Fold these 3 entries.
Entry 1:
Amino acid sequence: MTDFESFVGVLRRRAEHRPAHSAVRFRTGPEVEELAYGELDRRAMAAAQWLAGQVAPGERVLVSCGPGTGFLRAFLACLYAGAVPVPVPLPGGFGRQESRTTAIAADTGARLVLTDGPGLTAVHRWLEAERADLPGLTAVEVESAEHAGDADA
């Protein structure tokens, strides 16, 4: 048995005891994106602080990011804020895939999509095309949420 109640508890403990240790490394060709536990925790907590002002605990938030650490940061921000992350594919793939994402958004009642910088244009295009079916859904870059939030709050 472990002493952790949740995945968030594990991450918070690692960030506290091993802040400089690599938590995630993502490679796209020669480009490498790496976050240590302390940085991952700080960024997720800052985004969560902002997110908690936007959605109620238990509310669903779509998470739609391209390759990189954006997905992990957005997913963890949802968990930290008490929201329920709902992973969906980044729009721009197959048309059927986008209609499936629209159905998921409608079924979950999500009002917010957390995406990353590179995915924001695709998400906005999808939201504009689906405005009639998803009138209250908005998109925010996880990077913007990280900057707007306060990790120490």
Entry 2:
Amino acid sequence: MKGKSTLKIIDAAKIEAKPGMGKKGHTIQSLVGVDIPTARLRVTLATYEPNTLEKLHWHPIEAFYFVISGHIIVRDIEGNESEIGPGMALYCPAGLAGAHEWESKDDVQLIAFRATPESSKKLQFTVDKQTMRSYIELDDLVGSDGVSFESHY
């Protein structure tokens, strides 16, 4: 029996960098789950310039980040701070309790993993630290296919 290989080799250097959710100082390259379709996975290479702040936010699904290079200061919903660097990871459970923000101390590269390729399921809700109100900007909602989508139920 012969099988046809479905293995994919991905060269990040050949993937266009696009603005990330943090916009200024933040770019992303979708490795799989966008241009290379997958059933249950989205993997993105994210790059941050020094002193880039990714505001306090949460996702309706789990998120996992693995730091390749550089250092970030991570803060949780309670304001607790931790520094993470190369070889360290951050696991963020779904929902407000898993909310996180980070600030890059230097040039940072990390890999972001989501257990779905569907943009509408990986929405990012910013948290106002004063009121604890969660919101998403309309442009971000549109960019995440969140204006119209199938029910999650």
Entry 3:
Amino acid sequence: MFLVAYASSLPPHIVYFVVMLKLRVNQYKHIFWDWLWTVYDNDKQELYPWAQKVFEDSADSKHYMVSWAADPAGRKQLIEDSVLMGKLTDLWTGQEYKKGVFEQLMKKYQIPAEDILVIGDNMENEIQSAKELGLDHVHISDFVKEYGLSVAE
């Protein structure tokens, strides 16, 4: 039934990617997402086609958007205007290293490390921060390559 829901709106190879990512996401109560190049294609100025599907079908997880930006106010407005905003528990934009932001969110919401999955595209910021804090993580570029896709599909 899960696959049928996607069959009409996404190509089969993207359906497979969404299913595999959803299986990973559904193992966690809290998902810390990056925005740019993880769920949002800055070249096309739009969400990747699969992003909304993953958020819509993971209602049991709480989602947090943590986005570094040269223009934090502009990035915040972009995210607030997106269809994902209604799915977010919290939104942070700024110019701080993400490890500190992850720690703040963990403290604010009293989230143990084992309940968190970090999904990002930047090895030096999101992924390294997750490793340093003992958080599980998905490097989105590696994840999509594993399934023979590009993140923009």
